[in-house]
Amino acid sequence: MRKPGNIYTRITNPTTAALEGGVEALATASGMTAVTYTILALAHAGDHVVAASTIYGGTFNLLKEPLPRYGITTTFVDIDNLEEVEAAIKDNTKLVLIETLGNPLINIPDLEKLAEIAHKHQIPLVSDNTFATPYLINVFSHGVDIAIHSATKFIGGHGTTIGGIIVDSGRFDWTASGKFP
């Protein structure tokens, strides 16, 4: 290439990031790929995740079955019980994973309070914003650090296409905690 630029959405896409108000976005092959990439980018063998117990079944199963075989453990919490969320965070916790609107319950967590808890422990709050979409709820304005979407649902038209999106807000200080190389 003679001149650098955005040649593939799967590498970087400022337009997709702009939808959410983020700084960078990555398109993936599916929503579950977006979830998996996000977790594996932040957590490695010996690390821990705190996740809402009411998350999408595919995400729940990813955290419950294959990831522990690779040394990544998860504590599932009642996301509405903020004391339980904070008590579940350990020294090796790398993220708090929630859904903006829970699937299938459509429960709505307190994003600001959860962000406050996560940031107090110098870890990012990651929200699957699939059901809400960036059109209805801008999660970054409520303290979320990374938004994930299954474009297969509302963004892409209810299963007519398959895709996923990861968007970084650009607000989390990845170096301050020393937890993220």
Automatic annotation (TrEMBL):
<dbReference type="InterPro" id="IPR015424">
    <property type="entry name" value="PyrdxlP-dep_Trfase"/>
</dbReference>
<dbReference type="GO" id="GO:0047982">
    <property type="term" value="F:homocysteine desulfhydrase activity"/>
</dbReference>
<dbReference type="InterPro" id="IPR015421">
    <property type="entry name" value="PyrdxlP-dep_Trfase_major"/>
</dbReference>
<dbReference type="InterPro" id="IPR006235">
    <property type="entry name" value="OAc-hSer/O-AcSer_sulfhydrylase"/>
</dbReference>
<dbReference type="GO" id="GO:0004124">
    <property type="term" value="F:cysteine synthase activity"/>
</dbReference>
<keyword id="KW-0808">Transferase</keyword>
<dbReference type="InterPro" id="IPR000277">
    <property type="entry name" value="Cys/Met-Metab_PyrdxlP-dep_enz"/>
</dbReference>
<dbReference type="GO" id="GO:0006535">
    <property type="term" value="P:cysteine biosynthetic process from serine"/>
</dbReference>
<dbReference type="GO" id="GO:0005737">
    <property type="term" value="C:cytoplasm"/>
</dbReference>
<dbReference type="GO" id="GO:0019346">
    <property type="term" value="P:transsulfuration"/>
</dbReference>
<dbReference type="GO" id="GO:0071269">
    <property type="term" value="P:L-homocysteine biosynthetic process"/>
</dbReference>
<keyword id="KW-0663">Pyridoxal phosphate</keyword>
<dbReference type="GO" id="GO:0030170">
    <property type="term" value="F:pyridoxal phosphate binding"/>
</dbReference>
<protein>
    <recommendedName>
        <fullName>homocysteine desulfhydrase</fullName>
        <ecNumber>4.4.1.2</ecNumber>
    </recommendedName>
</protein>
<dbReference type="Pfam" id="PF01053">
    <property type="entry name" value="Cys_Met_Meta_PP"/>
</dbReference>
<dbReference type="InterPro" id="IPR054542">
    <property type="entry name" value="Cys_met_metab_PP"/>
</dbReference>
<dbReference type="GO" id="GO:0003961">
    <property type="term" value="F:O-acetylhomoserine aminocarboxypropyltransferase activity"/>
</dbReference>
<comment type="similarity">
    <text>Belongs to the trans-sulfuration enzymes family.</text>
</comment>
<dbReference type="GO" id="GO:0018826">
    <property type="term" value="F:methionine gamma-lyase activity"/>
</dbReference>
